[in-house]
Design goal:
It is a single chain. With 297 residues, the chain is of the alpha/beta class. The chain has one domain (48-290): Rossmann fold. Helix content is 33%, strand content 12%. The protein is built from 7 helices and 7 strands. It has helices at residues 63-74, 88-100, 115-129, 153-174, 200-220, 238-244, 269-276; strands spanning 54-58, 78-83, 105-109, 134-137, 183-187, 226-232, 287-290. Strands 3-2-1-4-5-6-7 form a 7-stranded parallel beta sheet, sandwiched between helices. Helix 3 (115-129) runs parallel beside helix 4 and helix 4 runs parallel beside helix 5 (200-220). The model has no long low-confidence stretch (mean pLDDT 92).
């Protein structure tokens, strides 16, 4: 398999998938996803861009978070992984890949909707890694609901708790550890700009993340801490089959992009590496769109 540094046609670099209708209980597992994803285990080649860095990545067990964790390890970083206890099988696999790359992996299961865990996971990551100089707020919750009349207060609150309130809590605690030169990268979405009708709560949190990123970047810039975001488009992950999309939409997932296909998690990883590495030292408050060509601000 070609790595991410090889000259390739982006249309055909990965296959145009037509996922069958399938269902997993939330939060979903990569190990049970059909077809499987490319998270970079065999396709990401590191070049030492994050040598010596110590990163906490939330939602690092599967999907985009796992691809970022693998890429960071291949680039020389040690990684602490935050994930739900139900995702232990996926997390164990990612830890094995990180260690095989020569990196340190610290597994920190818990629920980011719990305010105490949001604080404790940062303390434990810093203890386990011997410090902290990179944070990737990636964990997210996405449940499709077609009609606002069926969107419960409970779901609205749970989505905001996981997607934006936890991000605030984790970042607030992490800032106490981050030195000048450290970075925070937040996962937002194309949904922040072009919300799907069945993702009102999810899309609203992603728009909030864009604003939070810009405001925090301005606030922390004088301290030498850079804050940016990555906005994925339709990426094939377990999030989509654990009620993240209507089941009948799965076979067509991602086909409406200019590239004509859904993205793979490993295609997101270089964006997070760039925004975490020193080569992006003059980039702050930026939202980097990785969405297969969908127009966005």
């Amino acid at each position: 398999m070609h790595d991410q540094l090889t000259f390739q046609d982006p249309v055909t670099r990965f296959p145009d998938i037509s996922p069958p209708k399938q269902d997993q209980p939330e939060p979903g597992l990569d190990v049970e996803l059909i077809p499987g994803t490319d998270r970079g285990e065999h396709s990401y080649r590191g070049t030492g861009r994050l040598e010596g860095r110590r990163a906490l990545i939330t939602g690092a067990d599967s999907g985009i978070g796992s691809a970022v964790a693998i890429a960071f390890a291949r680039e020389g970083a040690d990684v602490a992984l935050a994930y739900l206890p139900a995702e232990e099988d996926d997390a164990r696999h990612v830890c094995e890949v990180i260690r095989a790359a020569g990196g340190k992996a610290v597994a920190l299961p818990g629920d980011l909707s719990d305010a105490k865990y949001c604080q404790q996971v940062v303390h434990d990551a810093a203890d386990g890694l011997g410090g902290l100089d990179a944070l990737v707020n990636n964990a997210g919750r996405q449940i499709a609901v077609e009609d606002i009349e069926d969107l419960s207060d409970e779901q609205w609150g749970n989505t905001f708790d996981t997607n934006i309130r936890a991000m605030f809590r984790v970042a607030k605690t992490a800032v106490g550890y981050l030195p000048a030169g450290a970075t925070i990268v937040n996962s937002t979405s194309v949904q922040a700009y072009s919300p799907s009708t069945h993702l009102l709560d999810y899309a609203s949190t992603k728009a909030a993340i864009n604003n939070f990123t810009k405001g925090l970047a301005t606030q922390l810039a004088p301290r030498g801490i850079r804050v940016n975001a990555v906005a994925p488009g339709p990426i094939w992950t377990p999030l989509q089959v654990s009620d993240g999309q209507p089941k009948e939409a799965l076979p067509h997932f991602g086909k409406n992009t200019p590239l004509g296909r859904a993205g793979q998690p490993t295609e997101l990883a270089p964006a997070y590496v760039f925004l975490t590495s020193t080569e992006s030292s003059y980039v702050l408050g930026e939202t980097l769109n990785v969405n297969g060509g969908q127009p966005s601000p």
